[in-house]
Design a protein that fits this description.
By secondary structure, the protein is α+β, with helices and mostly antiparallel strands. The chain has 13 helices and eleven strands.
Length: about 325
Amino acid sequence: MKTRMKKWMRYGILMVCVFLFPSLAGCQLGNTQVLVSSGLSEQEIFKMKDEICTLSEARVILTNYQNMYATMYEIDLWKHKFENNDLETYVKDLTISRLAQIMAMNFLAEEKGISLSKSEEEKIKEAAEEYYESLNEAEKEYMHVKQGDIETLYYRYGLANKLYTHLTQGVNDEVSDDEARIMEAQQIFVSDKDRAAKVEEQLKNGADFLSVANVYNEASEIECTFGRNDVAPEVEKAAFSLENEEVSGKIETEKGYYFLKCINHYDQAKTDDHKSVILEERRKEAVDDVYSDFLKTLSSEFNEKAWKKVEVKIEKDVKTDSFFKVYEKYCDW
């Protein structure tokens, strides 16, 4: 659980708290009013209740995200478009949403009487000192950061971590092989009844499945990998009864007709990975049940003007990307 919480902190596996995105500023979601603030200074990016997120704190997370994306997959992602928008906008939005989420979770932790112990606070200070000392002068100047800013960020992350553990402690960690089972297959999908009849006849006469698929398949891919609940119930029932190299009969669904050839009825590695996904979904649901309702009680102010001025600059001496790794080294609760 702790390991996966750390992955959430770094990559945002949990729901993104989008109510502070610049594109949503000034609107109302449920009972949560989001205001574009003129009362915040140039060094204050957003305010939630009585807590402020400073520009320096936001720059720390932004800089680490930008450098993590710069080295991801060993390609320069900054030269590409990302999710229908440029990568700079995406990373800036991700930074604000993550910081807002953490702060909201801190308020929820306070409401539930959850706090960090003295020893945990000491670990936070040790982590902040190590990370700050790892920065060169160019990085400190780029982020306009002091060690106290790092301590504040680590404290908030640590408290959110503790809340996450509290909210997910009752989640069932047992996932059966059958529930998580992933299989690989080849498919033929046709929407027309007459075409389905032709496919069925050719397969019954021993035609090569892949050859028939290349002629008739209307789906975007022939090769497919899926688990339970990933496909229509009729397809799932037929697919998971097949053995390797076995071909199904015609499977009728609301959208059309499927034929399947089982390539691997049980992919062990992908099934094991899928268990982690199922567990994370369970934990997310447990957190969302409480967190989503709590969000409706919070109002926020966002300094859109100040955040718009922030630019992501790729500088050769600004390479820091260890903020989350240092956090994980010290904060193991």
